């Protein structure tokens, strides 16, 4: 079997003319950047949202208040930890929070629901607050937000 090897020719040169550089003056008319169409869309609040619905002032205030409460054993707030199963705001501005704890033997099992109720009741516009502590479904790490997982080094 006879294989022919390719032959290469090497050409030597002394210098090469550099390519012309692009210049701003070469543009005949100043180019305006169009406004990003998402800027206004993302900044605008949805229309016709009641204060008790997601995106409304009371609902968002309750979520912000929940994000200020931290689990004493885990340095993550209880909302991102996935301990809050639901926030219901009635038309009369009564708020019911359904939550769980990491375990039934949690050392703050007696004090955490009271703190949640106190913080939620302090949100402007909330008439009264109620906390329902449930154990079903049980909490697991899959309920944590990506922010919480990142904070704990799990991502």
Provide tags for this entry.
155 residues, alpha+beta, 3-stranded mixed sheet, 4 helices, 21% helix, elongated
List the helices and strands and how they pair.
Layout: H1 37-43, H2 57-66, E1 84-89, E2 94-99, H3 112-121, E3 128-133, H4 146-151
Parallel strand pairs: 2-3
Antiparallel strand pairs: 1-2
Question: What does this entry look like structurally?
Answer:
This protein is α+β, with helices and mostly antiparallel strands and 155 residues long. Helices cover 21% and strands 12% of the residues. A three-stranded mixed β-sheet has the order 1-2-3, covered by helices on one side. A hairpin with a 4-residue loop joins strand 1 and strand 2. The relative contact order is 0.14. The mean pLDDT is 84.
Give a quick precis of the structure:
The chain is of the alpha+beta class and 155 residues long. Helices cover 21% and strands 12% of the residues.
Q: Count of helical segments?
A: 4
Strand order of the largest sheet: 1-2-3
**Helix-strand topology string:** HHEEHEH
Sheet with the most strands, sense and barrel status: 3 strands, mixed
Q: On the 0-100 scale, what is the average pLDDT? A: 84
Structural class: alpha+beta
Terminal CA distance reads 57 Å
Beta-strand content: 5-15%
Helical content band: 10-25%
Shape descriptor reads elongated
For the secondary structure, the number of strands is: 3
Give the C-alpha Rg.
30 Å
Low-confidence stretches are: none
């Amino acid at each position: 079997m006879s294989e022919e090897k390719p032959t290469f020719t090497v050409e030597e040169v002394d210098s090469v003319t550099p390519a012309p550089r692009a210049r701003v003056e070469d543009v005949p008319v100043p180019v305006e950047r169009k406004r990003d169409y998402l800027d206004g869309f993302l900044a605008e609040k949805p229309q016709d949202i009641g204060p008790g619905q997601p995106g409304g002032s009371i609902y968002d205030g309750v979520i912000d208040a929940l994000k200020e409460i931290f689990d004493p054993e885990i340095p993550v707030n209880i909302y991102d930890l996935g301990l809050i199963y639901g926030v219901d705001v009635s038309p009369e501005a009564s708020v019911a929070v359904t939550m769980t704890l990491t375990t039934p033997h949690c050392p703050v099992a007696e004090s955490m629901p009271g703190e949640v109720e106190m913080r939620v009741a302090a949100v402007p516009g909330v008439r009264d607050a109620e906390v329902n502590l449930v154990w079903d479904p049980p909490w697991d790490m899959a309920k944590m937000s990506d922010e919480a997982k990142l904070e704990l080094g799990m991502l």
